[in-house]
Each structure stands twice: as structure tokens, then as C-alpha cells.
Known about the structure:
31% of the residues lie in helices and 22% in strands. The protein has ten helices and 14 strands. The protein has helices at 29-41, 66-78, 94-97, 103-108, 121-131, 144-148, 150-161, 191-196, 221-233, 254-265, and strands at 17-21, 45-48, 82-87, 113-116, 135-137, 168-169, 175-178, 181-190, 210-217, 242-249, 272-274, 287-289, 292-296, 301-304. The strands form two sheets. The chain has an eight-stranded mixed sheet with strand order 6-14-13-8-9-10-11-7. Strands 2-1-3-4-5-12 form a six-stranded mixed sheet, sandwiched between helices. Helix 9 runs parallel beside helix 10 (254-265).
Amino acid sequence: MTLKPLTRPERLRPGAKIAVVSTSGPVPDDRLEAGLEILRGWDLDPVVMPHVRERHPQLPYLAGTDEDRARDLTRAWCDPSVSAVICARGGYGAQRMVDLLDWSAMRAAGPKIFVGCSDVTALHEAFAVRTGLATLHGPMAGALTFLKDERTRESLRATLFEPESVRTLGLETARTMVPGRARGVTLGGCVSLLAAELGTPHARPSARGGLLLIEDVGEEDYRLDRILTQLLRSGWLEGVAGVALGSWEECGPYEKVRAVLLDRLGGLGVPVVEELGFGHGAPALTMPFGVAAVLDADACTLTLDEPALR
């Protein structure tokens, strides 16, 4: 099955209500408050869901129980006054709660904007599979890149309010790894989460026809090799149209990481761009998933056929 473009939600208007949810790890309160102030400065009305500030009593790496995190996201999504849902941070835990979401109710609630990255990769895949909805791989309300990097913030703000202004994506750092030009539908996120999702009910069986955007954090070169080898051996990468690589924060010296990426991806026979400018490093451009686009590995750009939002 070849990937098809997904339904794009409507852009935000001034005064829109957006819900902040914790799907994974707990967020420091000072960082959350700073992020809320930025959103209010954009003339948005951020509403913090009830369990965002909680911490699991036995598993402190989780922001509250799986049931509470799933309940917050379901309620936020099904609230007709909410136009967008943005995650507070990544960490770990989205895979634990994704099966507890009321996907029937969320699908019936209609399209709205979903923003997150890192561990939220599992939810990007789930939204694509269960709702047919395009989502935004972008900075989260309590993330340091969002709080400290102006270009990261501006990329998200422009995507939310003026999506036609950010149809061609890529930083000056982008370089050609494998030349060529390809058309496909965007998907991706943290490559370790994509590998971890293989065989689950909320993940697509193949990236065929896709433009795969991948990055990660804290994975040494041999672990990245294992992750990419798993995706190759499973057949998940068969038919992928092109690959764009983002940042590899805390993954070791880039020359070692690059050697692994080239070794594992260079033989696919498709265009590959490195350091396009998304992920855990700053600046991190907001990348839409589920949108038809052209990856030009010679010009080092990703150009959307249509704006990320309607």
C-alpha cells in the first residue's frame, strides 16, 4: 500500500483555544509556565489539562497514570471549543497510553491540529492510522528548544497561522547525502520510536511512497545501526521515495553518526538529505506529516504541494 496524503486541519485564528497535554514524561512547572506565556503572546488561549502537572506515583518518568494521560488527550480532542492540541514534552510513555485513547470519539470529533515530537512519534503514527489526519512534528510547550530558540518558535507560529509562508523547508546547514529528487507523502519522527512501533496496531506497515523524515536523541552509533537495520530487515523501508535527516543530539560525534546513516540508507537508491533542520537540536523547523511534498536532495529542500494547514 502506497502512502496517500492525509486530511489537513484548519489553521489557527487569533484567540483560538489550544489544549496542552502530557502524553509522556512530566514537565517542569517553570518550563510549562514559560511556554504558556509564549502561546499567550501569540494571542492564543492555552488550557492546561487536569493531569499535565502530575507524576506517576511509582514510575516517576511518567506524567501521571496511563489512564489519566489518555483521558486528558481524549477530552481535549473531543472538546468542540479546542482548535489544537500541543504536547507539553516528550520523554517516554506515549506507547503506554495510545491503546487507551477513545479513537472512535476522537475520529468523530473531526480534524484539529496536533503538535509534538520525540516520544510523540508514536501518536503521529496513531493519528495517521486511526483518524487519517495530518499532524505537525513541532516543538512542545515545555521544550527547551521552544523556550530558548527564536527560529524554532517562529517556524511553529508561522505554520499555525500562516502556513502558506512555510511551504519550502530546510536550513542553510542542509547537505546532499544522496543526490536526486523525489515526490511522496511525509512521515517520520524519532527513528527509534518508528522501529519500536513495528507490528503494533497503530503503526503503518510500510513507508512505501513516503518521504521519511527521521532524527533522534541519545542513541549511540551502534544503536542507530541496529534501529535502521531493523527497519531494513522488516521490509518497512521498501518503496520509500526519499529520506530527510534531522538532528542527532547526544548521539556522539556526527562523523560517526553520518557513517552509519550513509551505510544503512545510502543503498536504498533514493535521494537523501542530511541536516535539514528538525528534531531535538536547535533550530528545529516544524514539519508536517501526511502532506504531499517534493524532496530535492540537490537543492536540499523539502517543498510542500499544499500548505500544512488549510
